[in-house]
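@channel sequence for tomorrow's demo:
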Amino acid sequence: MVDVSNNTSEDVRQEGPGEENRPIFSYLNPFYGNIGLSERLLFTKYFTTLSRAGISVLRSLGTLSRQMKTWRFKKIIWDSKTEVEGGMPLHLCFKKHDDVFGMLYSNLIKVGEESGRLVMVLDRLTKLMERQISIRRRVIGAMTYPLIISAVAALVVMFLMLFVIPQFANLFTQFNQELPWITQKVIDFSGFIGNNLLLIFAAGLGFFIAIFQINQTRPGRHFFDWVKLKLPVFGGLLQKYIIALYARNLATLFESGINIISAMKISNEAVENMIIQESLTAVVAEVEGGIPISRALAKVEIMPELSTQMIEVGEESGNLDEMLEKVAEFYEDEINFLIDQITALVEPAFIVVIGTIVGIIVLAMYLPIFRMARVVSGGSTGSTPPAL
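structure tokens (generated this afternoon):
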């Protein structure tokens, strides 16, 4: 628990995070040390609580530098405390770590410092991040659910191919009879997997490593961002998620007193898809040239007409921040509806696919057994069933 005592004396000595005790196996983890949105939210919540309790920024940062989970984050917070002690504004300390906090975070902190409403800004950031985490979890869950089911199906098929089908193949060899076409193909495929298992594993691992490395480059990320948006169903879901976050971030910045051009540029930096980011950058250029936001957004066609009309009404009435909030809520409702549809359709679809695959394998293995049973029982006087 964070200490929220009323002792705000700056004379209380606080120790930094110390040296990092990094596990050996962490060097194999390319994501080690990443500071996630959840940890930034935890920091902001605690910072809000401490500030609201009247505890100074310096003492709050010193306390929070020991509360965070990631050593790098602890070090950043402690260094920020040291820099604030030296006279640097807090928002500039955070701005030095835009890869962690982001431009939106540091700019809102700047507004809070300059207006004397730091607690209100921290509270606004907390609510913004909570909403972002909530909707992100739903979107990621909807997009990974089919992958999890596919992985389970692949494991089931792999188990049948490596352990079950070879037993049937040995049994069929003992009878020395011609096998149905479908049975022979399944046995051949099983043998191929068994004989080349290490090669298949190495190829799969190499493929994923190559994808990861390519995605680290700007052209590679640009290509994969384009592919994501073109995915059936999931591409539309991802676009709605990005635009919802953009609209809410823009509304929060504009409501906090940041001019619309700066707010748009800051919101653009928070967009995680390069294709949409390029479109929104073009929108900024249009607005800087004097074109209304609604008309500029309509040109790039990343929002439906209903949303651009809502923004147009907001511009004309002077309630742009409220209309942007409504646009964000509209997209969030769309996301929730689409996720419910995906969940309702994906599960039965995958059950049918998995059932069909397993059914074909079972049929292929039992066709020769049925044939041999007919021969043994004297049913071979009739016509032999044709090979499938």
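heads up for whoever presents: The chain has two domains: 24-100, 134-388.
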